[in-house]
Specification:
3-stranded antiparallel sheet, single chain, 1 helix, 4% helix, mainly beta
Length: 114
């Protein structure tokens, strides 16, 4: 029996953010639930990601839909680096397989709190 990724136990809160699933990588759609915000998730290689804005992770490939973290992920060296680790896994903005849309890559992440 496979061990679930640790992300399933981190804090996730419902959000009123609009669903962003149309901009996400097609292969990652089965790995999250929309309209949540989740903090401190881990991928299958145990690399930490800081924030999943708009999604609650249910799979192990968090690097394709979450941001922030350690800055280096050894799985795809040197492809996975920086805050947006694998958003362009199958090339920049192709919106195919594990790559997200150009609109998502070129967007900004803004956090507001009270």
């Amino acid at each position: 029996m496979a061990t679930p990724c640790p992300s399933s136990t981190t804090m996730a809160m419902p959000s009123k953010l609009p669903a962003i699933t149309l901009q996400m990588a097609e292969l990652s759609l089965a790995e999250f639930v929309p309209r949540y915000i989740q903090f401190c998730v881990f991928n299958s290689e145990k690399a930490a990601m800081a924030l999943c804005a708009g999604v609650k992770v249910t799979g192990c490939n968090t690097e394709h839909h979450c941001v922030g973290g350690g800055g280096f992920f050894p799985e795809g060296n040197p492809v996975q680096c920086g805050d947006f680790a694998s958003f362009d896994w199958n090339s920049y903005g192709t919106h195919q397989h594990w790559s997200i849309s150009t609109e998502m890559i070129e967007s900004a992440v803004l956090l507001f709190y009270c």
